[in-house]
Amino acid sequence: GCTSGHGVCGMARLSARSWVAVATFMSTAIATASTVQAVPALKELVFGAEGQEFFVIPGSEYAPLVAGIAGVGLLVEAIFSRASESNLHAAKKEEADSKVTHASLTASVPAIGLSWAIGATFAFGLGMSGMLNPAIILGFLTPTSAEGWNPNLALVMGGAVAVTGIAFPLIVNNKAPLLGDRWHLPTAKDITPGLVLGSAMFGVGWGLGGFCPGPAISAATTGTSHAVATAVALAAGMGIFRMVKPMLPANFH
């Protein structure tokens, strides 16, 4: 859960879990970022000698374009990959099965294309609003900073919640998605230790680095080492959690 998951989608759905998560990671992120800014030794340890300018990503405005190009490549690769699988199955199965496989392939192409378009739009919006620049995020998370408070994140997130809050009830009023057989919506409602602890951990990391998953992945397309390292670390963290999750109590998460 992050600013896009719990923050935009969850809050717009009026999910109690999401409101708790957002309150938790926002407070811990602000506390973390403000503490780093207030303690010179800690600030130098986190940002190095270059200071917060280390986080300014040169050329980040081109990230949506790069993401779009990468998206086209992934789309083409996915289509050809599925087509190859379809041909392989068609050679081994009866004609009826081949028709089903072909129908599935045909239906998947629009879904993949739409997913790419949505992702590219999201990345473009992040770039246009400055959300690919961690310095802007940290400017929001440090309201008492000498440089002054930066309200950009609040405006972007507030606008996204408003749009989603209006659109979501209208969309899910349909029996199924346009290109899917059913809706895949969260069903958990309990406020669990894992929700609170995970949100707090996310807040600490966000307050230190200024990146949440969406902007980190988009900014990584610029090739900036900090953004790439953050995206890789995010993937590693999620992988580690998948390994640890079976060891946790059932009611933890």
UniProtKB/TrEMBL annotation:
The keyword Cell inner membrane is assigned to this record: yes
Membrane topology reported for the UniProt record: Multi-pass membrane protein
Compartments it resides in: Cell inner membrane
Alphabetical list of InterPro entries matching this protein: DUF6691 (IPR046513), Sulf_transp_TsuA/YedE (IPR007272)
Transmembrane stretches, start-end: 19-42, 62-80, 100-118, 153-171, 191-212, 224-244
Gene Ontology CC: one annotated term: plasma membrane
Superkingdom, taxonomy of origin: Eukaryota
Keywords assigned: Cell inner membrane, Cell membrane, Membrane, Transmembrane, Transmembrane helix, Transport
PANTHER family noted in UniProt: INNER MEMBRANE PROTEIN YEDE (PTHR30574), SULPHUR TRANSPORT DOMAIN-CONTAINING PROTEIN (PTHR30574:SF1)
Protein name (Swiss-Prot/TrEMBL): Sulphur transport domain-containing protein
